[in-house]
Amino acid sequence: MAETNHFYETFQPEHYDIYIDINRGTKQIAGKSTITGNAVTKEVLIHQKFLTVTAVQADGVDVPFTVDNDIQGIRIDLAKTGNVTLAIDYQTKLTDSMMGIYPSYYQVNGEKKQLVGTQFETTAARQAFPCVDEPEAKATFDLAIKYDEQPGETILSNMPEKKVENGVHYFDTTVRMSTYLIAFAFGDLQGKTTKTKSGVTVGVYGTKAHKANELDFALDIAKRSIEFYEDFYQTPYPLPHSWQLALPDFSAGAMENWGLVTYREAYLLLDPDNTALEIKQRVATVIAHELAHQWFGDLVTMKWWDNLWLNESFANMMEYVAIDALEPDWHIWETFQTSEASMALQRDATDGVQSVHVQVEDPAEIDSIFDSAIVYAKGARMLVMVRGMLGDSALRQGLKQYFIAHKYGNATGDDLWNALADASGVQVGDIMNTWLEQPGYPVLTAQVVDGQLRIAQQQFFIGDGKDAGRQWKIPLNSNYDAAPAVFGDQAATLGDYQALRQAAGKPFRLNVGNNSHFIVKYDQTLLADILDHVDDLTPIDQLQLLQDFRLLAEGRQLSYASVVPLLARFADSHSTVVNAALYQLAGNLRKFVTPDSDEEKQLRALYDQLSSRQVERLGWTPKAGESFDDQLTRPYVLSAALYAQNQAAILAAHELFEGNQQQLASLPADIRVFVLRNEVKHFGNAALFDRLLAEHRNSADGGYKADIATALTATPDQDLLKRLIAAFEDADVIKPQDLRAWFRGVLANPAGEQLAWDWIRNDWKWLEATVGGDMEFTTYVPVIARVFHTPARLAEFKAFFEPKLNTPGLTREIKMDTKVIASRVALVEAEKAAVNAAVAKAVN
Ligand code: BES
Ligand code: ZN
């Protein structure tokens, strides 16, 4: 089938009247979707999925229709084209898929309760009501909801409630919007509200399993984020309210439904008195991300999913722009460097990766492009390059024009580039299309050849890669004026090196600030010069050096053994980002050693050498008034000391455990996970296991629950690991939404690897049935690929996954992950001896 069928080409909705009656007791849903719009063709197509359609009328008259499940649609035959009102009666079931209209389960004081909510992006609005479920099919919506309501329950939706009549809740007509952004939820909720300077009512809602003060942090961030965006975008928030709602069962992290943003509980609610700074930052950036979408995504929406980056890349950049403005002391761009930049550079180096702008048609394909490393992290880096080239003033001017031109409508990438070019005079589209339309990124080689300083670009690969001769227009951000601002050629000579070095008075560098999406390979001369002055570099530039070493080593352009002796130079840094990069690199050495071998002992000794002075400096418990850097660095060095099996560290953690036996949850949140994990690993038994599992079940604190999962999955005890795996399929113990983290924990534990691998292979069908409908499913494959590093596991991985190559949404993932493991296996085989010798030399 060559032509692509978008239903919008057959019918263009203007307005929906939607009535939905939901019964939690019987799990029955009955509804009627009345759609006024323009029939372009006599056969019109309306989306539906899992709906039983009982009648279709056009302008009040029954018309013939057929349900076509292959296209997730209803074919309706009309007598004529033109303006028409379709009325579609249907029934469906409330199911536990975390898609469409679905229940969330939770407990308050031992009593089981449920909350009903919705998740429609990308293509699940059609599971809730018949509609043209495509982003371009914008319309206004009148929603009327009835449910088996109990006294005291609350219902929320995109718009305020207009009236309640005979138990039916009627909501105000929405603005013109896409179907995937419709939302509602009801149940026994608690909430807090406030108002922005401009009069928008902002609220945070959650179940009553939470303490009321867990809503406060989010309320403050949400309010100030909206105020920030109204100013930054120069465009008012267009709805009367902005609700943030935490749902106990939630497939994604959070969802930007217009006016009713939904979140995982752990990404919205937190204990203001004892939550790790890292988690506070995550919650703040998640909120800022979803609220950025209220403009970028909701007010102006991508025309089709191929331009998903207009939503996600943009929101992913803006979450950092906003939080940097709201909490400048956090230096949140440093987190961008340690998480997003590193993720993007890693995945984008594998041949077969998709470009940021990517053609997609069917639903499974659409879901599979929400790739955190590409459309999020790489896409955000693209926009950071744009921001760097234009500056905030032209960027804001361009965005304002973009919103004026496309509000309540749709846009493509070119629409954005044109608006930005008009505002700045810079043809950013020309530059950015080289990044958006091509997969991968370049490594810049910088060399002194015959006394001349030369640079050249070539695509960088980890593992086998076919060089397709790709070139990028690269913002170089060099510290030498002789380097062009944007480098689009294959190679260039910048001039006489000695003269340039003399004039600049500092080592030659590219990508200062690490904001462009490329890495640099300096030759011996240039690298030696940089390393001689390494202390003059900013923390981010030191991180960059370590990051590029790591990637070049993964890509076999540098030997890991040559990197090992450099690590010690960074070990005493007081900067979080430097420590993050250092321990990421050190972590990469673990694949070269067999668990509990002599080689691993040497590696542990190296970790001890790197971390011991820092542990001494920082101590185990957070100190009043210490810097954010110290607070965020401590977890890295404690984790390293524990991997090192430093006896003092093991005992210090044990003492903290013993001293807080009665109130483990109130151990300082920044270090709690290490205390618990240490206890489980070295002093654990079945009683401790049972106790932690019970605390996990009874706690509503997302941070504490995650710490317990990390601790329990680290147990060396086979019987306990078996019990954990038995709980994987028991939603009362481990919710499907949290399962991936538990699975990863057991798989990454050498004592649990075989058990977890056996489980996923044996129960793949169960996994597919349970989480197959949502975005998490495909991400189990890279979780496995991150752990495996032996020829035997590579063979098993292939044997299991190759037959699944044709599963919708899995094809690219399986191909790429096979390559990821294969290249790691080859690397380990080739360099193991040299790396272990280098480690031994460093510690002896
Ligand atoms: N629009 C997405 C949520 C989404 C993703 C829905 C995939 C359907 C399919 C939302 O804005 C988002 O990006 N959520 C992130 C968290 C965010 C803060 C990075 C997520 O869910 O991972
Ligand atoms: Zn998003």
UniProtKB/TrEMBL annotation:
Domain (Aminopeptidase N-like N-terminal) ranges: 12-181
PANTHER family from the UniProt entry: PROTEASE M1 ZINC METALLOPROTEASE, PUROMYCIN-SENSITIVE AMINOPEPTIDASE-RELATED
Family indicated by similarity: Belongs to the peptidase M1 family.
Catalytic activity, as annotated: Release of an N-terminal amino acid, Xaa-|-Yaa- from a peptide, amide or arylamide. Xaa is preferably Ala, but may be most amino acids including Pro (slow action). When a terminal hydrophobic residue is followed by a prolyl residue, the two may be released as an intact Xaa-Pro dipeptide
GO molecular function, one term: hydrolase activity
Lineage: Bacteria, Bacillati, Bacillota, Bacilli, Lactobacillales
The protein's name: Aminopeptidase
Coiled coil, from the record: none
Domain Peptidase M1 membrane alanine aminopeptidase per the UniProt entry, residue ranges: 217-435
Source species: Lactiplantibacillus plajomi
EC numbers, comma separated: 3.4.11.-
Cofactors named for this entry: Zn(2+)
Cofactor note: Binds 1 zinc ion per subunit.
Keywords attached to this entry: Aminopeptidase, Hydrolase, Metal-binding, Metalloprotease, Protease, Zinc
Keyword Iron-sulfur in annotation: no
CDD domains: M1_APN-Q_like
Domain ERAP1-like C-terminal: 510-817
UniProt key word Metal-binding: yes
